[in-house]
Each structure stands twice: as structure tokens, then as C-alpha cells.
Backbone:
């Protein structure tokens, strides 16, 4: 993938369109973010190297063998990222006979997450108490389901160490969550199956419960959406997610080990005693939001509120999660962060336009400004305002008319049957963000495939133009995405995993 500013200036005549200016690889020209919207797409453009991707059909489908990147080894304070449904996650290699989760189920869970996000952000009256209070006084508490956080299809995992001596645990990382938690013995009420043995605080020399009277206990309200409760003077947390998964347990501190040289004593986390949900064999969750209890905030003194990640090109390869600015590419292009008043810990972006095949789509700027946009590591499919999606779909279909169509797949309604092809050619898609930042989506981030007979455009419409748009993780693949929280900006660069 290349971050080229693609621009063609046209001279119109009655008989032809003449190129007055041409783009060459590696040279920066006027971005298509500024280009005039074209009413038609010239046939010659469909075959221009810079306006299309061409890839082998086999590249659309993940392998059954893990292809591990060496990028993690080259970076300081970096963790390997694996997909929880892919062969790089050890639990899946140990359970080969078990049928993997279907793509239809992943998309259903994805919609649950999106519904939860929209519930959080869709009504100003929800900007205060976001989930009600925890009424009961033990770890078997029931959490109100009406306004959960968003786990759904969050599907990327890193391994960290917890306790003294440290115990390695595989945790989902999520920019849409703040509280870090793991399942803990003795599992007073319930624990689901996870890859490693469940963490037992009795085996650690450094675990401590947080008292109900501590100000740290009060910090749970903003970080989980629920007021904390007490059990024998110990602070009890509770969090429920949009797909009805939940975790309830003791709020405590423990030593967190990210790498041999990155060790954090007194890290605030949840020690879950009642946990249920589809966490894909992970031991819990790492919260990478902007709330004071998130991992980002708790490690800010060392990492200066900066982290980055690269999500792998497929579920059979690996990426990285890096804390701090070590190894950040010089080619990163930044756009300012915006804030959602109802959920300030989320990472907001200002989209200014979308281009397909180098042509800016005729989408009024007000469509994006009225809905707002967030970037989210846990949402799979990018959601757009219906007006924007309709324009994207139309332009994409026009440039894909040579291929036979296929039935819709769940929320994805623009699908193709590529079974008769060895290679496919399709238009580039790029997003324009505030700050004159153009991000060209990698070729692996345009389709979502169940099989070669049903390969779908990996975008979907929201229910209404007023619903917040979401830049999902399929479109983030292979990019290095840098969250400079202190600087109030998010950056993008190509080739982040290799």
C-alpha cells in the first residue's frame, strides 16, 4: 500500500479528456481530497496503476498456517498482535477440530457492537450515568444490559504478564474500552473457557484489593459506566458489553509486565469473579481508551500518552501493539482528534471526503460533520452515513461491472463471485481527514470474504445519517496507526506490519 496523493487535472472537450498532469510513483501531488468531483469515470482511468489494485484471488482468503511478522522484535515496548479466530492464536491451534466461528456470526456480533456505540452516543441524556448502578454486594451481581460497553466482535489479542511472579495472559485490546480486566480464581460465580489457566491472586506477591473508600474506586464510574459497589469493604466493578457479555469482580492493583523492561507496579485492573461472553478464549480485555483508568493513561508517565498498532493483513498473520513512540514511521500523516461529548474516551475523527478510483465522491461535507466519526479497533466493518455509503457503493459497482455479482452477506450488500478468476482488479478507496490527510485503504482492507463465490465490499450503511460513522478494523489493516493522545492527533502510515 502507498500513501500517494493522487490527482489528475482534466481538460474537458467534446470528444475527449486530456491529461494535463500525471502522477508518478513516490512524488507528492495535489491530493484527491481536493480534486473536483467527477461526474463520470473515464475508461482509461480504470486501468491506471495508481487508481486500481490487482491481487491474486487466493490473497483474499486467510491461510490455515500462521505467518508471523518480525516487526515486534524490532521495536521497543512492543507486543505481538494476533487475531482471536486465526491460527496464530495458540488456542485455535490446540483446537483444530472445533469449527471456527462463521463470518455471519462475526458480522452479527459486529452489529451488536455498533448498536451499543450508537446507543451510547445517540442520546444526550446518556452522557451522565451510562449503565445504572450496581445494586448487589458480591461478585455475582447482574449488570443492567440497556447501555453496555462495546465488546461484540473485538478480535485482536496481545499477551501480557500479570502478578509476581508474572503469569502470561492473552487479552483482547480495545480502543473503545477503558477498564483492563482478567478472569480470576476462585471464579465465585462463573468463568468461561480461556487459553491459559485462570489468574489466581493468591499466587501473586503483589496483588492488593482497592477499598470502597478509596478515590480509585470512584474512578470506575467514568471508566465502566457503572457506579461501583462494595463487598466487605472491597471495591466491586461491573461492566456489561453490547452483546450481553459481562465481567464483575474485585477492583485491585497488580504488577503489569508488558516486556522484560516495561514493568508497572500498582496497575489498576478488574479481577473478574463472574464473567460470561464470547471473548474467543482470551483471558479478558485491555482498555486503550482515554479514560484515567485505561492502560494508556496509567502508563502515561513512561509512554507519554502515545501508542500505535498495526493490524495484520489477515487472521493468519501477525501485527503489533507498541506503547510509546519508539519505531514510529517518519511517513506518518496526522489528523486532529475530535471528542464525542457523550463518550469522551472514544477517539473521534473528522472525515472530509471519500474517493473511489481517484475520484472524490459527491458527498456533501455536512453529511460527515453532522454524524461525526470514530476510529475503533473493535468494530470490524466501517459504517458510513447512508448518504455516503450510497455514493461509495454506486461508484464501486460502476467500476466493478465486469464481474458477476453474488448474494448479500448479512450487513454487506455489494458482493461478487470471483470463482472464475485467478486475479481481480478493483478501484482504490481513500479517506480524507481534517488536516489535509489522505489515507489510502490497503488492498486487503476493501473486501470481506467467506469464499471466492461471495466476496463483499467491506463497508456498510448506518441506519440514519445522524448515527456516528465508524472507521473499522478491516480498513485499518497493515497500516501503522499512531494515537498521540497528549498531542490530540491520530496518524496513519503504510506498511506498518512489515
Residues:
Amino acid at each position: 500500500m502507498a500513501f500517494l496523493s493522487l490527482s489528475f487535472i482534466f481538460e474537458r472537450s467534446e470528444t475527449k479528456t486530456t491529461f494535463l498532469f500525471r502522477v508518478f510513483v513516490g512524488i507528492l501531488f495535489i491530493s484527491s481530497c481536493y480534486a473536483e468531483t467527477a461526474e463520470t469515470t473515464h475508461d482509461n482511468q480504470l486501468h491506471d496503476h495508481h487508481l486500481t489494485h490487482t491481487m491474486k484471488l487466493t490473497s483474499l482468503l486467510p491461510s490455515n498456517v500462521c505467518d508471523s511478522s518480525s516487526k515486534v522484535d524490532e521495536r521497543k515496548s512492543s507486543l505481538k498482535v494476533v487475531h482471536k479466530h486465526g491460527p496464530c492464536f495458540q488456542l485455535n491451534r490446540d483446537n483444530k477440530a472445533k469449527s471456527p466461528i462463521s463470518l455471519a456470526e462475526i458480522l452479527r456480533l459486529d452489529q451488536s457492537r455498533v448498536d451499543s456505540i450508537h446507543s451510547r452516543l445517540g442520546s444526550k441524556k446518556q452522557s451522565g450515568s451510562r449503565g445504572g448502578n450496581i445494586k448487589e454486594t458480591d461478585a455475582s451481581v447482574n449488570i443492567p444490559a440497556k447501555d453496555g460497553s462495546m465488546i461484540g466482535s473485538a478480535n485482536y489479542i496481545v499477551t501480557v504478564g500479570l502478578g509476581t511472579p508474572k503469569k502470561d495472559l492473552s487479552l483482547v485490546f480495545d480502543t473503545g474500552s477503558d477498564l483492563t480486566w482478567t478472569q480470576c480464581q476462585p471464579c465465585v460465580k462463573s468463568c468461561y473457557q480461556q487459553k491459559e489457566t485462570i489468574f489466581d491472586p493468591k499466587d501473586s506477591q503483589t496483588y492488593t484489593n482497592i477499598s470502597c473508600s478509596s478515590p480509585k474506586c470512584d474512578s470506575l464510574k467514568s471508566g465502566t459506566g457503572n457506579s461501583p459497589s462494595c463487598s466487605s469493604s472491597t471495591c466491586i466493578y461491573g461492566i456489561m458489553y453490547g452483546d450481553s457479555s459481562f465481567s464483575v469482580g474485585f477492583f485491585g492493583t497488580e504488577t503489569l509486565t508488558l516486556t522484560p523492561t516495561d514493568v508497572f507496579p500498582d496497575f489498576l485492573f478488574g479481577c473478574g469473579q463472574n464473567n460470561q461472553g464470547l471473548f474467543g478464549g482470551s483471558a479478558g480485555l485491555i482498555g486503550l481508551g482515554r479514560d484515567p483508568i485505561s492502560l494508556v493513561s496509567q502508563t502515561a508517565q513512561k509512554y507519554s500518552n502515545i501508542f500505535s498498532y498495526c493490524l495484520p493483513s489477515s487472521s493468519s498473520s501477525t501485527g503489533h501493539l507498541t506503547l510509546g513512540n519508539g519505531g514510529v514511521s517518519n511517513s506518518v500523516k496526522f489528523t486532529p482528534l475530535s471528542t464525542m461529548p457523550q463518550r469522551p474516551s472514544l477517539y473521534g475523527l473528522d472525515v472530509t471526503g471519500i474517493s473511489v478510483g481517484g475520484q472524490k465522491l459527491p458527498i456533501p461535507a455536512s453529511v460527515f460533520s453532522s454524524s461525526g466519526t470514530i476510529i475503533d479497533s473493535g468494530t470490524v466493518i466501517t459504517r458510513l452515513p447512508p448518504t455516503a455509503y450510497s455514493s461509495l457503493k454506486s461508484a464501486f459497482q460502476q467500476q466493478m461491472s465486469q464481474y458477476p455479482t453474488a448474494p448479500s452477506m448479512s450487513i454487506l450488500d455489494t458482493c461478487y463471485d470471483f470463482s472464475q478468476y485467478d486475479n481481480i482488479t478493483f478501484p482504490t478507496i481513500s479517506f480524507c481527514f481534517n488536516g489535509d490527510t489522505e489515507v489510502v485503504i490497503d488492498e486487503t482492507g476493501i473486501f470481506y470474504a467467506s469464499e471466492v463465490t461471495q466476496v463483499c465490499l467491506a463497508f456498510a450503511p448506518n441506519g440514519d445519517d445522524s448515527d456516528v460513522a465508524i472507521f473499522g478494523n478491516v480498513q485499518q489493516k497493515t497500516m501503522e496507526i499512531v494515537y498521540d493522545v497528549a498531542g490530540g492527533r491520530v496518524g496513519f502510515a503504510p506498511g506498518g506490519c512489515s
